Amino acid sequence: MSDATRLRLDELSEALRISRQTLINWTDRGLIDAELGWGASDAASDQTRLLSLREDTLDFLRDFAGEYRDDTVSRTEARRLLRLIDRNQVQKLIRQGSIKARKVKGETRVSVGSVEDYLMSLEHEG
Question: Taking the model in full, what pTM does it have?
Answer without folding.
Answer: 0.87
